Write a sequence for this structure.
C-alpha cells in the first residue's frame, strides 16, 4: 500500500507527461487512476455538487441570489493506492475534507471518500460505498485514513451529550472489509 498525501497537482502529472514516483519507484499505473479522479471532479462540478476552486470563496457564495454548492474540493487530498477489489490491479481510495466556501466550519467533520476501482481495462468510481456503511451509525461518523488489500482503516467518531463541538469523546479505530462491507472496531470497547 502506498499513500500519497498533501498538495497534489494531478493535472501536472497527467498533462505534462510526468511519471509519479512513490517510494523511489516510477508508478505510471497511477496515471489512469489520477485521470479517473479528475473525470470524477469534472462531473461533480457539472452536477453542481462542488464549486470550482475559482468560485469557492466567500465573495461568490455570499452574493445575493447565489444557488451553488457552497463547498469545494481542496488541493489537499489523500490517496491510498492498493488492490481494493482483489483483482490483481491497482485501485485507490481518495479522501478529502471539503472546503467550505464561506469560510465557516460547519463541515469540520465531513469527509468525502471516492473509490477508484479497476474494472477490466478501465476504472470506475464509487463515492457512496463508505457513506452506506457510515449511515448504519446514526450518531457517529467515519474518517477513513488509508486502505490495504481490500481493507479500509480509519476512525469512528461520536459525540456524547456533554462533548464540545470541537472534541467528540468517542474515538474508535475501525476496519472495513471491501468484500463483505462489514465494519469492525479494532479496539476493545
Amino acid at each position: 500500500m502506498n499513500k500519497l498525501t498533501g498538495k497534489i497537482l494531478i493535472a501536472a502529472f497527467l498533462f505534462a507527461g510526468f511519471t509519479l514516483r512513490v517510494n523511489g519507484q516510477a508508478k505510471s499505473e497511477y496515471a489512469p487512476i489520477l485521470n479517473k479522479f479528475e473525470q470524477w471532479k469534472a462531473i461533480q462540478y457539472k452536477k453542481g455538487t462542488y464549486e470550482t476552486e475559482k468560485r469557492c470563496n466567500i465573495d461568490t457564495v455570499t452574493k445575493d441570489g447565489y444557488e451553488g454548492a457552497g463547498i469545494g474540493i481542496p488541493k489537499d487530498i489523500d490517496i491510498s493506492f492498493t488492490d481494493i477489489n482483489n483483482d490483481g490491479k491497482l485501485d485507490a481510495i481518495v479522501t478529502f475534507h471539503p472546503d467550505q466556501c464561506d469560510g465557516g466550519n460547519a463541515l469540520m467533520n465531513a469527509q468525502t471518500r471516492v473509490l477508484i476501482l479497476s474494472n477490466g481495462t478501465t476504472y470506475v468510481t464509487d463515492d457512496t460505498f463508505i457513506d452506506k456503511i457510515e449511515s448504519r451509525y446514526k450518531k457517529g461518523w467515519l474518517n477513513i485514513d488509508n486502505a490495504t488489500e481490500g481493507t479500509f482503516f480509519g476512525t469512528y467518531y461520536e459525540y456524547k451529550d456533554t462533548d464540545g463541538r470541537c472534541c467528540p469523546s468517542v474515538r474508535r479505530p475501525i476496519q472495513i472489509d471491501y468484500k463483505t462491507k462489514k465494519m469492525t472496531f479494532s479496539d476493545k470497547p
